[in-house]
Amino acid sequence: MQSYVLIAISGALLCQPLFGQEAKPATDPKSREMNGIPPRTAPTEYQTQTKAGAITIAADFDGHSVPTPESVFSTEDFIMCEVAFYGAPGARLAMSFQDFSLRINGSKKLVPAIGDQFAFKSMKDPEWVPPAQAEKSKTGINTGGGGGANDPPPVTPKMPIDVERRMEQKVLKAALPEGERALPASGIIFFQYGGRVKGIHSLELVYTGPAGKATLPLQP
């Protein structure tokens, strides 16, 4: 009788998940492929395009702007490129922002693309108006300080957390999808650069990835 009890307990333990582990729901492939910006009808609708093996890569330079399907944000510490991949019907490609880098002003040192989350700290929503400024524009009354030469610089208003989160979600959805995706596919990639766009005289987007190697000249 004791042996039957031990067998039953052992069987029950084998059916339980290991300690600290939980069953993970399967990811819907269709939902994964909805990330990124909707690609344009053809590669020729972008500023530049070139071939990497059997894949066509197209790109636009967006400067310090972060274009998303719903809004356009900005950051002074990063510059952005919108890239798109095109292939034969049914083609798929493993994509990553890490496959890209920028050559600025002919420099031998390339600037690697960086994860979009690093740009959130300095990102701004031009359409967001601080409550004090909004009230001032309505009443026409200046509620600020004296503005004397010895006065400290004004404090930059901080966006509410809920506004920041909505902005970050929009940017995350617009960023270049990661992993294998059906083509065509497109998205935004980020490069750390705090200088003025006017100081960029030449710009090349360099791709080294699963499709091969390619260099796309961009218009600063």
Subunit arrangement of the protein: single chain
Fraction of residues in β-strands: 25-35%
Largest sheet: 8 strands, antiparallel
The CATH architecture term is Sandwich
CATH class: Mainly Beta
Order of helices and strands: HHEEEEEEEEEHHEEEE
Low-confidence stretches: 1-33
- Determine the CATH topology: Immunoglobulin-like
Dominant shape: globular
Helix content: 10-25%
Decide which structural class fits the backbone. Answer: alpha+beta
* Cα gyration radius (Å): 25 Å
Give a written overview of the molecule:
The protein is of the alpha+beta class and 220 residues long. It has a single domain, classed as Immunoglobulin-like, CATH 2.60.40. 19% of the residues lie in helices and 32% in strands. The protein has an eight-stranded antiparallel beta sheet with strand order 1-2-5-11-8-7-12-13, with no helix packed on it. Strand 7 and strand 8 form a beta hairpin. The longest helix has 14 residues. It is globular. 25% of the residues are buried. The N terminus is likely disordered.
Helix/strand layout:
Layout: H1 2-15, H2 29-32, E1 48-52, E2 55-63, E3 65-67, E4 72-75, E5 78-86, E6 92-95, E7 100-104, E8 111-114, E9 123-124, H3 131-139, H4 161-174, E10 179-182, E11 185-192, E12 203-209, E13 212-218
Antiparallel strand pairs: 1-2, 2-5, 3-4, 4-9, 5-11, 6-10, 7-8, 7-12, 8-11, 12-13
List the defining traits of the structure above:
220 residues; alpha+beta; eight-stranded antiparallel β-sheet; three-stranded antiparallel β-sheet; 19% helix; 32% strand
